[in-house]
Amino acid sequence: MGRNNEKNIKKHNDKLHKAQAKKKQAEVSRKEKLKEIVKKFNESKNEE
Fold first, then answer.
1. In the chain, at which residue ranges do the beta strands (DSSP E only) sit?
2. What is the value of pTM for the model shown?
3. How confident is the prediction along the chain (48 residues), in pLDDT tens digits per residue?
């Protein structure tokens, strides 16, 4: 019984992919928030 059996590899990969997905989702939401901020800034600038 080694450490690199199928069950442990799958568990590790699932954890890794979950972390990567979480990181990617955070990046996407950050970009969306930035777009909204820029949009609001441009609107307020146009009003002046």
1. none
2. 0.64
3. 567 899 999 999 999 999 999 999 999 999 999 999 999 999 888 876
